Fold:
Amino acid sequence: MARLLPVLLPLLFSAALPGALRAQPSMGAPSVDQTFDRIERLQQQSAARQRAINLARNTIVKLNGGLTRYMPAACMFSTGSGVGSCLVASTAEGFRFRFSGGAPGWQQQGQVPTLSSEVLISPDGRQVLEVAYNGAPR
Structure:
């Protein structure tokens, strides 16, 4: 902790100063403002990713008759950044999810999935852009 104090104190004090008065970091390190901006972007992306996984999962559940008839893979119930292998792409186009599903309990009972789905959700996580596939496993 004693070694970190000389490093942390300037950062803490620079965060309290107006932008024009803050010292610029040396050796190409990001400024405090850049770091806070990056943290804010990551938080926004995380919220959009969580909305996207919820929307993708709920869309496919509805298409396949509801939770009494269909259950998506466990990775579609992940929270936070632990989206797992169901998120196959996160680009400017949006979030693309590909996942399996089947009758309720299929995964817990070690059964093979009966359906496979691929869904593209908008970058803000609020709109289904495409249900690219929803059918027999390929």
